[in-house]
Write a structure and sequence with these properties.
- By secondary structure, the chain is mostly helical.
- 51% of the residues lie in helices and 2% in strands.
- The chain has a two-stranded antiparallel sheet.
- It is elongated and about 70 Å long.
Length: 270
């Protein structure tokens, strides 16, 4: 599943007020004693541009509708890198990865400094488990925008997939240095694909590395969450946290100690 975060710009709203003209009356009309009902006020009308409508479709996960509009926009504005990138996102969310990759590559060709498109190219390679290509794409994106935590997060996942765990943990730490809430998927990150966090293999190790990242950042609450996940997933080397320098800031915390404490042996049934 692709996680996509989009910040929609303020929608232009145009209130169409009815034109009113006043005419002089020669003689006033007779006053009626019958009750009259005031006409219902007219409703304001809203107008969305094609771009705004397409982004709204993305937010609503109506990806086919978004695809149709963005396709039209790229035909009308072939030099607009954003439209090509958003069209790629629409394809991506429909799992049409080859079409998505071509759109991202077109976006990067139109604007070689568009970091989001390069990041999104990396996510295609990541999903295809071509981790070296994904890493190169992420590094190109970071070279253009080195203060954006999602790029470092994606790089960390790619290094993890390649089993280069030291580089993975360093990337996660960098993401957390930039934004302590980097792993909050509810945050708006317009135009940027963030990889699926569901790790199918080595989950215990993955959770331990996340705990290690949060521990190094001094975030006890998040550290405990992922340390407990690592323990519950059966990570065998969890006690290495006691001597790992990355856990030095949090190791004495009671919540951390509780996670690392050996489980009591349950009495056997007679």
């Amino acid at each position: 599943m692709i996680r996509y975060s989009l910040a929609i710009p303020a929608v232009g709203i145009f209130l169409l007020a009815p034109s009113i003209s006043f005419h002089a009356q020669v003689s006033p009309p007779p006053v009626s004693t019958a009750s009259t009902t005031a006409p219902a006020p007219s409703r304001p009308q809203t107008t969305l541009s094609e771009e705004e409508q397409a982004r709204l479709y993305l937010i609503k996960k109506q990806f086919r509708e978004a695809q149709d509009i963005y396709h039209h926009l790229t035909v009308e504005h072939p030099k607009n890198a954003v439209y090509w990138n958003e069209l790629g996102i629409a394809f991506h969310n429909q799992l049409e990865l080859e079409a998505a990759l071509k759109c991202y590559e077109k976006s990067a060709k139109v604007d070689s400094h568009y970091a989001d498109a390069l990041n999104n190219i990396g996510t295609i390679y990541y999903e295809r488990k071509k981790y070296p290509k994904a890493i190169r794409a992420y590094k190109r994106a970071i070279a253009l925008k080195n203060d954006f935590s999602p790029f470092y997060m994606n790089l960390g996942y790619a290094y993890f997939g390649k089993k280069e765990y030291d580089d993975s943990i360093a990337s996660f730490r960098k993401a957390l240095d930039i934004d302590p809430d980097a792993f909050d998927i509810s945050k708006n990150r317009s135009g940027t694909i963030i990889q699926d966090r569901s790790i199918r293999t080595d989950r215990g190790l993955f959770y331990f590395l996340l705990a290690k990242s949060f521990a190094a950042a001094g975030n006890i609450d998040r550290c405990v969450i992922y340390l407990r996940k690592a323990r519950d997933d059966g990570y065998a080397d969890i006690n290495s946290a006691k001597s790992d320098p990355s856990f030095a800031k949090v190791i004495s915390d009671p919540a951390v100690q509780e996670v690392l404490a050996p489980k009591p042996i349950e009495p056997t049934q007679p």
